[in-house]
Design a protein that fits this description.
By secondary structure, the chain is an alpha+beta fold. It has two domains: 2-61, 3-Layer(aba) Sandwich (Ribosomal Protein L9, domain 1); 69-146, Roll (Ribosomal Protein L9, domain 2), CATH 3.10.430.100. The chain has helices at 23-30, 41-72, 95-104; strands spanning 2-5, 18-20, 36-38, 76-81, 124-133, 136-146. The longest helix has 32 residues, at 41-72.
Length: 147
């Protein structure tokens, strides 16, 4: 029996894949659990429509991320930190702090999208990448200065 997978099924494939399985496996396991649906002409048309909608949505998200990246590429933020002897920074500048500084400038960026390898623990100027979309990345400048 030919079925269209709705979810990831181990050893068969991912959502949208059309596979041939035994009739009993399809009727007794895959279809009742919502893991698959019969590959009828109507379901195949519905699958194509879903793929088109998903493609349009993905393109829209990518374009929005590119527009945001263009705005972010010229942005610089300043993090003021307290320092001790020999300009040793107390604490560190984290992605959460950078997200808050960006929010003050009017950019809503999730801290998990800020790609800091490790917190900034020294005074200076840093280029920090922000992953807005799997294919779109922006860079901002972060100035770490003494209080």
């Amino acid at each position: 029996m030919r079925v269209i997978l709705r979810q990831e099924v181990e050893k068969l494939g991912g959502p949208g894949k059309i596979v041939d399985v035994s009739d009993g496996y399809a009727r007794n396991y895959l279809i009742p659990r919502g893991l698959a649906m019969p590959a009828t002409p109507a379901n195949l048309r519905m699958l194509e429509e879903e793929k088109k909608r998903e493609s349009l949505r993905a393109n829209r998200e990518k374009r929005a991320a590119q527009r945001l990246a263009e705005k972010l590429n010229g942005v610089s933020v300043t993090a003021t930190v307290s320092v001790g002897e020999d300009d040793r920074v107390f604490g560190a500048v984290t992605s959460q702090m950078i997200a808050e500084l960006l929010q003050q400038k009017g950019f809503e960026i999730d801290r998990r999208k800020i790609m800091l390898e490790e917190p900034l623990k020294a005074l200076g100027i840093y280029d920090v990448p922000i992953k807005l979309h799997p294919e779109v990345e922006a860079k901002i400048k972060v100035w770490v200065v003494r209080e």
